[in-house]
Specification:
Radius of gyration: 22 Å
Number of strands: 24
Structural class: alpha+beta
Bound molecules: flavin-adenine dinucleotide
Strand content: 15-25%
Number of helices: 15
CATH topology of the domain at 67-108 and 257-335 and 434-484: FAD/NAD(P)-binding domain
Largest sheet: 7 strands, mixed
Helix content: 25-40%
Length: about 500
């Protein structure tokens, strides 16, 4: 068993999957050989083939046909939303997923009794874009909401110097709060495409604490700070969050509840999902997509191919020589978002004011999400789980972790006494980083259209048209694609 360090992006999926605790991570995974039982479970959860066994794992049984209406590459939330809608609309759909689990960065892996997310922490509830998409599609999920659990606010604020505020409004003098709200209400997208969030907010109100808080909100939504986050996008995120906040909620059981519900709908409508089935090539005939080839050599034909595996991999699967030069140039210029999370298990809650704690003015940590305040079922009985989010500022993963842990110890002086689990997860490289970050020139309609330059080949997921907080922009692009397909599944 070997970890190829040069391929490891640090996501930690292997560590989470290992049943005997033989994998550790300091930003890069390493295997403790004396503990490893060579079970091989870590191999097919690695997005980058960074782990190899001396004897290759047996190929899974082939459970797919040779001809479909639609082939979808990747079972991220974008791929599954699309597959569910198209299957419900009567198309013969198959989803091919490289990993041994579905959901990509939007599910959980069970680890030491905790359901640890592979990326996303929450859909924000029924009033988010994702929540509304599911409801329009007729997918029912159970939510644990802020209101039901007795909280007034989605987030509270804590500075390292000990100052705490239950909300932005409570933190600001009345005039500054009004000016801030006016800025959000008045901001018009078209006029703001070139303005940074910092410049725009500072034009309306000068308050250092506010700017530090705005910086953390931008970072948690997109992994970039206020200098690089376009004001237009900040306004969309603020408005969306306010709307979702009217009924902020988590799905009971973690975000994978959404993924499982979508998968159920796909299968109920005759669709298929095949895991451990990597697509190695998109087949083209006379310039149009006609199907895919799998890594095992099988070819599957389809009228339409939809890619959900990230833009970098899209170029590889299609072949750069088959894409127009201007498209390729545009894709190569996209700036990827690099970020990390530290998942903590604790024996006591870290904080109890609201499920999200914004932490302005730290070295690294932007926001801390205590998911078990809303849904205790995702941790062992009596334990708590906290998801710490940090944008990355250097490639030195050990140093980034050290700075983040320093922030956490300053914010929570009793941290070391109550720690039960620490899992660092880095989202770097072409995948599984959130590929094109929300920075200038790549927000909203500036993102890629679902229609690729190749006929019958489409894109869904994080790189595609849409605005909003993190993965919540994905349904915007999926809806656009469904319009192209004249799909009526959303009612
Ligand atoms: C730390 C972190 C925290 C986040 N928190 C939130 C949050 O709280 N809320 C939120 O909404 N969003 C959040 N996000 C963003 C969210 O996780 C992503 O936007 C979303 O999961 C991306 O979904 P996607 O559809 O683009 O596909 P992905 O999740 O990227 O999945 C793509 C899938 O395609 C598969 N694939 C790739 N290539 C192939 C191939 N050749 N053959 C077969 N399969 C292939 C991959 O294995 C993968 O399963 C967070 C992200 C990170 C990193």
């Amino acid at each position: 068993m070997k970890v190829h360090k040069e391929k490891c992006t640090g996501c930690g999926y292997c560590l989470l999957t290992c049943p005997v605790g033989a994998i550790e991570s300091d930003g890069w995974a390493s295997i403790r050989e004396e503990k490893c039982t060579l079970c091989g479970l870590c191999v097919p959860v690695c997005p980058n083939d960074a782990i190899s066994l001396d004897v290759p794992l047996k190929e899974p049984e082939r459970q797919y046909g040779t001809q479909y209406d639609v082939v979808i590459i990747g079972s991220g939330i974008g791929g599954l939303m699309t597959a569910a809608a198209l299957a419900k609309d009567g198309r013969r759909v198959v989803v091919f997923e490289k990993l041994s689990f579905i959901g990509g960065r939007y599910t959980e892996i069970d680890h030491a009794g905790y359901a640890v997310t592979t990326g996303a922490w929450t859909s924000m509830g029924p009033k988010s874009h994702i929540g509304e998409f599911l409801s329009d599609l007729g997918v029912e999920v159970e939510y644990a909401s802020l209101r039901d659990e007795g909280y007034d606010q989605q987030f509270s604020i804590r500075f390292q110097d000990g100052r705490e505020f239950p909300s932005l409004q409570a933190m600001l003098p009345r005039e500054d709060w009004r000016a801030y709200v006016r800025a959000i209400v008045r901001g018009r997208k078209m006029e703001l495409d070139e303005a940074s969030t910092r410049d725009y907010i500072e034009e309306q109100v000068v308050n250092d604490d506010l700017m530090a808080a705005v910086n953390t909100i931008a970072a948690t939504a997109s992994a970039v700070g206020a200098d690089n986050f376009p004001a237009s996008e900040y306004i969309v995120v603020s408005r969306d969050s306010a709307k979702a906040g009217l009924d902020f909620a988590c799905t009971v059981g973690g975000v994978r509840t959404l993924i499982e519900a979508l998968a159920e709908m796909i299968v109920a409508h005759g669709g298929q999902i095949s895991t451990r089935t990597e697509v190695s090539r998109v087949l083209l005939e006379r310039g149009s997509a006609t199907g895919i080839e799998l890594r095992n050599g099988d070819q599957v034909k389809a009228d339409t191919v939809i890619h959900n595996g990230g833009i970098g991999r899209f170029v590889q699967l299609v072949g750069p020589e088959n894409l127009p030069a201007d498209y390729l140039a545009r894709v190569e210029k996209l700036v990827p978002a690099e970020c990390a999370a530290i998942i903590l298990g604790t024996t006591e809650p870290l904080f109890t004011e609201a499920p999200i704690l914004m932490t302005p003015g730290t070295d690294r940590v932007a926001g801390v999400f205590e998911s078990t305040l809303l849904d205790p079922s995702i941790a062992p009985r009596g334990k708590h789980m906290v998801d710490v989010f940090l944008p990355l500022y250097s490639e030195d993963r050990a140093r980034e972790l050290e700075l983040a842990m320093g922030d956490l110890r300053a914010l929570f002086p009793n941290l070391d006494d109550i720690l039960d689990m620490v899992v660092p997860m880095f989202f770097t490289g072409a995948w599984p980083g959130s590929e094109s970050r929300q920075t200038f020139g790549q927000v909203g309609h500036q993102r890629l259209d679902p229609r690729s330059p190749i006929p019958d080949l489409y894109l869904v997921g994080m790189d595609v048209i849409g605005s909003g907080a993190a993965g919540d922009l994905i349904p915007v692009g999926v809806r656009r694609l469904l319009e192209y397909f004249q799909c009526d599944a959303l009612g």
